[in-house]
Specification:
By secondary structure, the protein is an all-beta fold. 0% of the residues lie in helices and 42% in strands. The radius of gyration is 13 Å and the shape is globular. The relative contact order is 0.32.
Length: 128
């Protein structure tokens, strides 16, 4: 059973950095595409970044390009999101997710409809 868990959220000042991790205790994440999403208060959940399990290709939403990096840590069985130069508008609950099918997804965007399993989220607050 897929059981995703996010960690690493915190309060950080503008311009600061955080590293979020997505772990799964039951499945090898290397076989699954993983997406990172976020949801700010009063807003819809939006895709941030994803990494395809087969090609290793990564996709980022325009607002985080050049600041965020998604990567796999095979030794830890995690998919991490390194976030640099954080801005107040990055404040949100961040979620990781995987599709039901191995290797599926993250082909032409970070799309909610491609993902079936979700973690509980971790809060990121960017404020001075």
């Amino acid at each position: 059973q897929v059981q995703l868990a996010e960690s690493g959220g915190d309060l950080v000042q503008p311009g600061g950095s955080l590293r979020l991790s997505c772990a799964d205790s039951g499945f090898d994440l290397n076989y699954y595409t993983v997406g990172w999403f976020r949801q700010a208060p009063g807003k819809e959940r939006e895709g941030v970044a994803c990494i395809n399990a087969v090609s290793g290709n990564t996709i980022y939403v325009d607002s985080v390009k050049g600041r965020f990096t998604i990567s796999r840590d095979n030794g830890k069985n995690t998919v991490d999101l390194q976030m640099n130069n954080l801005k107040p508008e990055d404040t949100a609950v961040y979620y990781c997710a995987t599709p039901q099918v191995m290797g599926y997804g993250c082909w032409d965007g970070v799309k909610l409809e491609e993902y079936d399993h979700w973690g509980q989220g971790t809060q990121v607050t960017v404020s001075s």
